[in-house]
């Protein structure tokens, strides 16, 4: 390896290290046994404000504007914006996506979400 | 000859202790304790627990309490919520951190006080049920705690401006003003001359002016507001420190 290629190699690894991981959503959805379709975003938007338990929906904590900070209904802790366009860290870790979908569905719906509900949420968050 | 030796040794001992008392890493720390509670110094705990609620310092509960709280079975019912872990490795890491910095292990002054106030037979899982914490807050009327900006006693940061750094000193406390809490957003963002209604108490108000009040060691932002009562106008000044609440 000559000097030039070493420099390029170091530079590329620095850039890769500093950028957030890109998630292959299609294969993530596959692990849930579902896939996105043309309706997903609108379904996600509708679900966002739907109450399965009275007084609780996604917007209760995250508000209706995904670019804004929200506040935890119970603990009153500030929640940073969910939208990746306002908060670069969002949707960059599969582990976290799975963890929060499980937790927050249980918190808001008292049950886990179905694979297609999960796809709709992520599609809605991705695009808003 | 003998006398010189003793002088030499005495001089040495004296200098050693004199220097030690000035040093941060002094042997006196073994006997002396630091104030407050030890700040959280664990990124994983901060992320995992601190994303839903204030990351309570491990030194606020004894080891046996953390052990009980962090059992995966009890995390299924964590104050009414299922937050049990599938990834046991993460759970073990957090639990180890909490247990090894617990109130009965820490030598921070407030942790020691907390621990001393708890009967060994008891294993509290709520920090707000610890006798020392209860005693320290017993003067607070319920309406102060129940107000919108606070909500519950466990919302430390609502009043303790330095809670994050483990400093719960009385001088760092600003209890949010209930009336100010109703117009919190407006006080933050609206210009002088803004008029509105506080629906909760049915009063009209107008923001009159804004000023910065500076004292020797602190700086606060204040806004003068006129509140309209049925028979008179009341002029109140609400202030806040940077990042704090209106009081």
In short:
Chain A is mainly alpha-helical.
Topology of helices and strands:
The complex is a heterodimer of chains A (128) and B (247).
Chain A lengths: L2 H16 L6 H8 L7 H9 L9 H5 L7 E2 L6 E2 L14 H16 L5 H12 L2
Antiparallel strand pairs in A: 1-2
Helix pairs in contact in A: 3-6
Chain B lengths: L1 H21 L20 H6 L14 H7 L18 H13 L8 H9 L13 H7 L4 H5 L31 H5 L1 H6 L5 E4 L4 E12 L4 E10 L4 E9 L6
Antiparallel strand pairs in B: 1-2, 2-3, 3-4
Helix pairs in contact in B: 3-4
Features:
heterodimer, A: 128 residues, mainly alpha, 6 helices, 52% helix, B: 247 residues, alpha+beta, 4-stranded antiparallel sheet
Structural class by SSE content of chain B: alpha+beta
Helix content of chain A: 40-55%
- Please report the first level of CATH classification, the CATH class of chain A: Mainly Alpha
* Share of helix of chain B, binned: 25-40%
Count of the separate structural domains of chain A: 1
Characterize the overall form of chain B.
Answer: extended
Descriptive report:
Chain A is mainly α. Chain A has a single domain (21-126), classed as Cytochrome c-like domain (Cytochrome Bc1 Complex, Chain D, domain 2, Orthogonal Bundle), CATH 1.10.760.10. Chain A has helices at 3-18, 25-32, 40-48, 58-62, 94-109, 115-126, and strands at 70-71, 78-79. Chain A has a two-stranded antiparallel sheet. In chain B, strand 3 (219-228) and strand 4 (233-241) form a beta hairpin. Chain B is built from 9 helices and 4 strands. Chain B is an alpha+beta fold. Among the domains of chain B are: 43-138, no CATH class; 178-241, SH3 type barrels. Classes of the chains: A mainly alpha (128), B alpha+beta (247). At the A-B interface, helix 5 of A face loops of B.
